[in-house]
Amino acid sequence: MTHEVVELRVHGVSGTSAEALLDHPVVIRVAGDDNAGFYRPRPGFGISDRPGGLKVEAYRWGALTAGATVRTLSLLFLLPFMLANLTVWTRPATGGSGGLIGPLSRLLAATVTAAYVLSVVGVSIDLVGWQCTPYHPCVRHRGYLGWLADMPLGPRLAILALVPIGALRLLWWLGERSARAFEAFPAARGQDRTSGGEDRIDRPGFWNDALVVQRLRAIHLAIGLGTLTTLLLGAQIHLRPTVVGYVFLALAWLLLTASVVLLCLPARASSEGPGRGPVDLRGVRPLRLAAIGLTLLALGYTAIPLEPEPPQGQLPGYEGAVAGLVAAQAALLVALVVTTVHQRRRSHERHSSLLSGLATPVLAAASIAAAYGFSAALVYRVADFLDRGEIPNPARPNEPGAPPLEPPVSYRWAALAGLAAVMVVAAVAIWRILASRRRRRRLAERIVRRDFPDPPPEAVPRRSTVREVVARAAVVEQLRPVFVVFLVLSLIGVATVALDLVGIGPSDLSRRLARTDGTATTNLAYATDIGIYVIGLVAAGILVIGLLSYRSEGTRRTVAVIWDLGTFWPRTVHPFAPPCYAERAVPELAKRVTALADQGGVILSGHSHGSVLAAATLLQLPPEVVPRVALLTHGSPLHRLYARLCPAFLGDRVLCEVGDRVGWRWVNLWRDTDPIGGPVFSAHRPGQQPEVTGPAGSVDRRLRDPQAVTVSTDDTVPPPINQHWPYHTDPGYEAAVRELAGRLSPDLRRPEPGR
């Protein structure tokens, strides 16, 4: 019986067409659907397959990560949630469960949800309902606000409370919709979550965490509604203290406490060894019902008409809530740094970490910074709109009879911290790039001299261009200090914002520390304005990038890289993060590879991020299938990015396990001009070949790029500099495919029963 060998190609981030992936004008889908499908060349149209029975197939999964518009909106609105969800996946590799990093990451993610609710409350209930509508100058010529001014305070606040409730419902709907479309994909045989460990990417059911997301979504809903309810009841008690109000407020705090306790507990309840047991959903449904019921009671209590004096200043308790939340985030972030540093000392892969082993707190700090950056921009822009063009700050006192429209002072701190962070981090990045330029060019010169030792005079400019491309490709390794500086600035920023708990704002701090006059206060207020505008420009810039992505392939790929890398891991920390496409892609690939292996051999070929999907797929294959599978990676970030950023899940030990499982039928192709891919079993050192002993030493194969710097006799231009794409058109790629196909030949016979 003749067995066929199928080369199954998996593309990388930003996707590509099946026609481009297969180098064929006409393709047909043989499995899957429009979101993620398997394609083959259509027989009879062009060259459909290679000679010798070697078939080619492509897995196109790019539609799982949606289009440019969805990516851009998600990067803008869901970026804090996505960054928070990544924290636990970048922890140091200690061989354990991560200790306190999991609970701390989940608690920090919950504070991001609370910050989201607070920002919407600040716009709807505080600025519009409490500060603006009672004043005629604010609602003048604004019919859409006039009807609110005619209502009593209680009903007005109850109606405006529907806005943050709707914002939470929107996040819930997006999560449910994405789960139905892309997650909880039916697992293949051997992927039923009956065993395994939470720390192992090879455990059955690793990519099926729909119940974990369901549990977290209910808890975060309770936290969001509890935050809203606490603010509403606090304002009511300020106006009319009653026993009922205090009872409701105590229940709201009890709800938040129960949510915190559930977040600290592990999601999975397994008492039989290190297994990846079932998700513990006990207490989640009562918590969700209690949150909804208490919110309805609070809305009803708030809607009771009353005639207090006209409100003055901000919503009672709102500024304290924002400052208290920032203080809690500062404490959690410090605890996360201490825990990560402690675990980093125990890590067996410290030498290869990308961010000095501090990726977890760096991502947590980035999540907090993004959340408060967007919150400050939103609240101040609405306040600027309501007071008709004047950003509120201490340098410009309000006109007589005008509403105060004062956002919390913590947001002024956030504006200043954001301005300082943008300036310092940008300066450090530019300095690092410029400072390393000479060294990178020196290393690049070694490479081009080795590849093109004696070019003719007319080819010297082309060789110089290649040298610059190689030097730019090595920039990634030089940016580590940038992230360390960002982490330090973030720690200082959140600690400083916590000063608002004692009523010290930027201007007050300036007067107390420097004992300056009003000039410094005015300058500081102007700096606050600049910070607000900078944050707003950053948000606008993301939207502009989204628009440019329709016309620019380079911009589209950049946006797609951020999206695809950020949504690769399951949502086990923040349920409102963008959906995890790998929860469908990996089980689907495993199922297809298993089916193809039953008919012969499979060469799983992954380009760029597709190589990560391919490695994760191999770790999910049944043992009887693996002997008939080989692995071909090209332009792969497996070591350059993932092993160094996520050492606990895709570190060097896991990559060696991939090689062992596949019998070291693995070839990895890389180029010095590639800014993303690199060798797998050694550090990416431009100009140096990997020095690895054993079977791992035969995996990495360097491809010269370009093929030449001179114009061949049958061409009009020199060969292109391919960099990251394409690899499958390189002669070295075809040679690797045929080599792996030959190494598969002895293994194609199915094992006999009972052996």
Description of the molecule:
This protein is α/β, with parallel strands linked by helices. The chain contains 26 helices and 8 strands. Strands 2-3-4-1-5-6-7-8 form an 8-stranded mixed sheet, sandwiched between helices. α12 packs antiparallel against α13 (359-386) and α18 crosses α19. It is globular, with a radius of gyration of 29 Å. The model is unreliable at 187-198, 270-275 and 749-755 (pLDDT under 50).
Strand and helix map with partners:
Layout: E1 4-10, H1 18-22, E2 27-32, E3 37-41, E4 54-60, H2 68-77, H3 79-86, H4 101-132, H5 136-139, H6 143-149, H7 153-160, H8 162-182, H9 210-239, H10 243-264, H11 284-302, H12 318-346, H13 359-386, H14 409-435, H15 437-451, H16 460-473, H17 480-497, H18 506-514, H19 518-548, H20 553-566, H21 582-597, E5 600-607, H22 609-618, E6 629-634, H23 638-645, H24 647-650, H25 652-661, E7 666-670, E8 700-702, H26 731-744
Parallel strand pairs: 1-4, 1-5, 5-6, 6-7, 7-8
Antiparallel strand pairs: 2-3, 3-4
Helix pairs in contact: 2-19, 2-20, 3-4, 3-13, 4-7, 4-8, 4-9, 4-12, 4-13, 7-11, 8-9, 9-10, 9-11, 10-11, 12-13, 12-17, 13-14, 13-17, 13-19, 14-17, 14-19, 15-16, 18-19, 21-22
